[in-house]
Amino acid sequence: MIDKVILKLSQAFNRTFCDFKGIYLFGACTDGKLHKDEDIELAAIFDTEDKSKREQIWPIVGKIETEYDVCIDLYPYTEASFKQDEDIYNEVMEEGIFYNSKGIRE
Fold it and tell me: Which residue among 11, 47, 84, 87 has the highest number of C-beta atoms inside a 10 angstrom radius?
């Protein structure tokens, strides 16, 4: 289920944005399972990240949450802003799983 959600998000981001680089999965769902009362925590990486992009991201996320009946906690970043958010960056680097821009786990 987690892989399907990430694949769907990746496909939507690729259709909408030309600078989508991939998604990191982190938190409780890194075991590939949904957990009651836990969101799917994701960090999406783009070349640019701004208010306009966030306004386009949230409807995509909302549609996929509804389709799969899940809660997604998505953080959009550039590579630089991701590294500056030390708490999330360190957690992701310790336990996170990277999915490339095609939604394939690496």
Answer: 11
What is the mean pLDDT, run by run of 10 residues, along the chain of 106 residues?
95 96 96 90 96 95 96 96 95 96 94
What is d(CA 84, CA 106) in angstroms, rounded to the nearest whole number? 23
**How many residues comprise the chain?**
106
**In the 8-state DSSP scheme, what is residue 41?**
E
**Dihedral over Cα of 79, 82, 83, 84: its sign:** positive
12/16 Cα distance (integer angstroms)? 6
What is this structure's pTM?
Answer: 0.93
9 burial level (CB within 10 Å; 0-12, 13-18, 19+): buried
